[in-house]
Amino acid sequence: MKFGTKVGKDFGHADEANIYWEMEVDAGGSATATFTAPSEPGEYQVVCGIAGHYMAGMVATLVVK
Ligand SMILES: [Cu+2]
Asked: What separation in Å is there between the alpha carbon of 16 and the centre of ligand 1?
């Protein structure tokens, strides 16, 4: 998610404007990707955008130093 933004109760349409970067992976699959980290130091919320997954705990923090 963009710096200073966090998902609300669950990830939804209202959060889509706050996405910094995203990728998709098929169920049961795997993927490797590269992205350019934000230049502003801080903590960025990383979430799974599939319905219910955020609420189930598929959330992490990216720390940019
Ligand atoms: Cu998920």
From this structure: 16
